[in-house]
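User: Some background: our group keeps a shared notebook of sequences we're curious about, and every so often someone picks one and asks for a predicted structure to add to the entry. Today it's my turn. The entry only has the sequence so far, pasted here. Could you supply the structure so I can complete it?
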Amino acid sequence: MSKVSLGRGLLGLSPVIVFLLLYVAVSLAVGDFYAMPFSVALLVASAWAVAVSKGPLAARLDTFSRAAGHSNIIYMIWIFILAGAFASLAKEIGAVNATVDLALRLLPASLVVPGMFVAACFISLAVGTSVGTVVALAPLASEIADSTGLSTAFMIAVVLGGAFFGDNLSFISDTTIAATRSQGCDMSDKFKANVKIALPAAAVTLLIYLVQARSVVATGLSTESAAWWLVLPYLIVIGTAIARLNVTVVLTLGIISAMCIGLWQGHTALELCGFMGAGIASMGDLIVITLMSAGMLGLVKACGGIEWLLQTLTARLRGKRGAQACIATLVGLVNLCTANNTVAIITVGSLTREIASRFGIAPRKSASLLDTCSCIVQCLIPYGAQTLLATSLAGVSPAAPFTYLYYPWALAVAVGVSVLIPAKAGSAGRRH
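Assistant: Of course. Here's the predicted structure to add to the notebook entry:
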């Protein structure tokens, strides 16, 4: 790793600082997270990133564009487009209302919130992706909020917390695969280390939801129960997701099933296409934000901001606890700068393995720290793909769920406790 000077490092990170000051600080100052448009804050930060980068303007714009046009970003945009089309179509044919109506009739209103959290945990654990869980549950969470008088931002936070529970623990999650491969340990070993951290955090979060939801009353139930077959599109989406189909295939099947029901109801094909078009159009701002965010963060990396973070945090390591804290901080800050937990794990993976080996940290422990801490930050940042998608589907500000995100904070406390408590002797784990 090349040596990056303090000035160059801070300059490289400055676009992220500009964005956070412009959006978060201004929003907190005026007490309104809708006052400063998210896209405008990113536009200014992106322009600043281009301005402070070295080289000809054409080269800087090329770096920005290549980062924005990365295959992972385009794939995410495809998901946004399909999610917008499905969500709008499902709502217009009555699938969302019917699913929520059924849930509120089967469950006491006081159990809807904890039930949504448990459902998100289960689905994400089975699917292995937080994005797929958000796609399936965010529209339902929004409608439940309308039917119970709860805050939409609160319900979206419930879904996000549960979505990252599974993203962190699932054997088929890309973060689990990246963390275990980079640290050279078995998935089962990492799972055993991880579950001791994630499960208590989830239990505490569930208890909070049980207490908070005691007085919830279903106010939006219709006098007549909705037709059960209207629930089919959501059953297909959730079922195929649990069957581990690709999320684009899952959404496509959902759209096809919703189209069939819409035609059977008497809608014309043109009307249904109009519903889908409106849903796709509603994703426009989200797509622009995703492209600008990826481009800006690409320039941050190209300018040496992330390299400077890595070398600064590893300069003065002391003791096993300090090394574990360093690993957690490393992956968290890199995630803050990349807005992608898998990329953050891959970026710091080899360095983390060196640190773990030097200080005698079990491979399963370092893998657990990488996965868990990256998921904590990814859940908390308002510009992460999962939060942007969930809030876009629900029609709220990306920062709105932040104050209700109990699970990632509980998980952060659990990580801190796990670092402070020494590991048992003989738990070094297997390294491959």
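Suggested note for the entry: Residues 183 and 410 are 25 Å apart (CA to CA). Residues 425-431 have pLDDT under 50 and may be disordered.
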